[in-house]
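Kindly review this record before class:
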Amino acid sequence: MGEKRELGLASWALIITSASLLSRILGFMRNMVISTLFGQNRWTDMLNASFVLPDTLYLILVGGGISSAFVPVLSGYLAEKKEREAGEVVSIAFNLVLVVVGLAVTLSIFFSPFLVRLIAPGFNSQEISYTAYLTRVVLMAILFHSLNGVLMGTEYAYQSFLGTTIGPLVYNAAIIIFGTALASRLGIAAFAWSTLLGAFLNFLVQVWGVWRLRIPYLWSWNFRHPAIRRIGELMLPVTIGLSIAQINLFLNQTFIASFLPPGSINALTLASRVVLVPMLFAPSLGITLLPTLTRLAVNKEREAFERYLVMSLSAILFIALPATAGFIVLGEQVIRVLFEHGRFTRQDTLATANALVYYSLGIAAYGAYEMLSRAFYALQDTRTPLKVGLLTLGVGTSFNFLLGPLWGVKGLALAYSLAGWFNVALLFYLLKRRGIISGSPKVLGSTLVKSLIGAIFMGGCLKILTGRVTLFLPGSGIWTEGLKLLLLITGGAVLYITVAWLLRMEELGFVTQALKGPFRRRRAGLSEDLGKVG
């Protein structure tokens, strides 16, 4: 039973990761189109700044509550076979989000010029006015994103991931298609309007995803329902905690960066998105892990709880450390291949690559946070991450104001990574003090040492191979550069996997099992079908 559950967890994580990777590719295509058409300057800074207020509203009002409160509470009802009540909770939550977020969006649209001035004080009056216009458009999209959050959370709780994998693909594809088509007429605002359209199309996909579960929609406004009150109680600390995290991000990428040379906000934004690619596995694994940890916590299966958590943290270290080494060695080439086209200049590449290298130092920390925070959420403890978040905000703010003016985009990226390590170290210590991960430090320490050995060896070899590949494939065209990068990444992966195999790392087996699981079941299902036909 435990073995099947473990295989299912790994396989679903793989499926969601694959879809997330494709969505991320589309997201990069969107960024590539914007970079090609507009370069890296104040226009792109204004577009990125226009998402700060909408994203903050979403994270505070809906985003954090989905993973920390809505999914655990709904999963609890389903674990207790209370499916009728679970359906009622879904309807009430949907109606509540519609009203609350709708009101928040309306007020934010009205006060957007004042709010933008607070977000980007380094902008002049014309830049603030145009950013406010873009913000109003994106705010309307947030209403659909918020409703999508409830619907996707429902699918996660029911462990039905089809709609959640398709929707983001539709969203990003719509932004690319309609943004490109409207760019000549609307300028950079085309990508704000296409965001609104993409959010609406994603909403339609999620409606279909929930409809497949045959959950009846109820015109219920019983906001005093015990489940809704419990979700509210769990959400409050998380809402404050996410506000803290968003303040740290906003100070890091927008507030201080608005005083730096034009294009700095865009450089930090692009680098922060690229650095997330190796850790797509982290949120995907966290999504599939949360309902499992919740059930184990309810059933008081402490050993299984620890085993799943340690397995997830080990997987994070196994993937994150070589990714960091890879970005340190190949970061400039990655940015050049992805974005140095059209109006995106060589100087833009260097600025973005500098930010990427220093952001990459925090990959493991932010990946581990996805696991550790969900461990607390599964235990229905949202106050501890809040307290840790408050301390992290103080530390992160100090780093931002100290290193940002001193080293520019490099200093801001380094400040964000240091804050992440402080956060995850404190969360890990508190779980250990509770006895939740009592025997884990030795296991994780072994994974850390072996992964570091592999990452350092891989990074050193890549440094040497970079020049050799250039001799083997002369030229500087985009396809040639892309082929060089692909060969280096592939070679680095082979080197790291070889070292992991020689060191007998169990994490390599976990990833291999995840890859084989779906195909095993598919072959088994086919054999059964052939047997029935015979």
